[in-house]
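ok here's Amine oxidase domain-containing protein, seq below lol
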Amino acid sequence: MSTELQKPRVVVVGAGWAGLGATYQLVKQGYDVTLLEAGPYPGGLVAGWQTASGKSVEAGIHGFWYPYRNIFALINELDINPFTTWTRSAQYSPAGLEVESPIFQDLPQLPTPLGTFVYTKFQRLPLIDRLSALPLLYAVVDFDNSEAVWHKYDLMTARELFRNYGASTRLYKDAFEPMLLVGLFAPGEQCSAAATLGMLYYFILAHQPDFDVVWCRGTVGEKIFRPWVKKIEKLGGTILPKHRVTDVIVDGGDKVTGVVCGDQVFAADAVVFAVGVTGMKKIVASSPSLQSRAEFRNLHNLGAVDVLATRLWFDRKIDIPRPSNACFGFDATTGWTFFDLNALHDEYKHQEETVVEVDFYHANQFMHLDDEEIIKIVHNYLATCVPGFRQGKVIDRSVVRLGNAVTHFAPGSYRYMLPAKTSLTNVFMSGDWIINRHGSWSQEKAYVTGLEAANLVMAYLGKDEKANILSIAEDEPHIQFARNINQVWRNVNKFCG
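and the structure came out like this:
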């Protein structure tokens, strides 16, 4: 028998950040890896595609934040240059410009979170309201990403968190809830306080530069996933789009021996699931083998949020002050963002018309409107933020409805999320909704959990090699000190109690 036939066989399900990350690490170590993707392209929701007229579109725009250390390391390893420079951003309400954010790393470094508050330019939010955030620092210190604090804060809503720690109503409505609407994709009364603290700390409060962001200079599918897929295939990996997993074959104990796609069965010595919550629920719903286990049945208690992604082409140049913008207050429970693609994407840089991407999160009320009605609403909202849009005429557009597209971190959801290891001894989980202790969020978390799953596969199959996972930057000294004191206080209370 040839050495090639003796390679351990690994099946990875889902070709987003987590699935491609796991696959890449495993093929580099010589495993026989088959990556199964339900959609027509590798990349999942961020793959991107072209319209019938040859214009690029994708399912929303995704930023790459300063603390994405592992994704930036991957980009260097692939030797590609997909990103813009660091960009400034703004926030709008129906009253106009509300907030301008600088490039924080270019400014003198102040102890966290002082730099965030000092350098962010609030146009209307009074200082007294901003100062009401100070008591919240205790919750930030208390939230050390441990299992215990996740359970402590997860049953609380984000709205309760901010109210309990004294944040003013104005501060909540004009600052914190807008962050939730575009960061956790839901209003505060529907968001877990634990997820809120994790997201805010990672992106905004841990270190001054963390809110700095770069953007892909085209679709992520074209600029990042395409060269990444080529590298994986060159290393011997097999990537199969249009392969929807419907079941797994269990050997009668706790080991999976095959992954089922309709009439096809892919033999497996180990399996990595790397799909979103909605995709995983669909797999469980069609799989008697997974339904027989409570941990997988309980995934149906998790939810997801609707996203509406639109792209508009206007007949003239419109001056958009900053390339990336978040908006709130137009609809009570919906946040939205808009991006100047002439400034961000190579494809549109020298075009005479203006190309703008507008994405809505928690977009329930828009999903069943027809395209023309949606475009009217989007055009009106844009003109409220940037008056130059009023004179512009829409000459082309794309409307993409993405039902249940992004994870909803609802209060109480933590108990139903899966860790990387499951009760099936050779099945491992990855994705931005998986429990892990790394502390990252969004695309970076998905990628990191893919690397962690690859490491678990290698350990299970008896190989010592591990993917190098860069930890998040250490807490600043004053935060470390405060957390140490808080831990001592916890221990004293536990002992006395």
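fwiw The radius of gyration is 23 Å. kinda neat tbh
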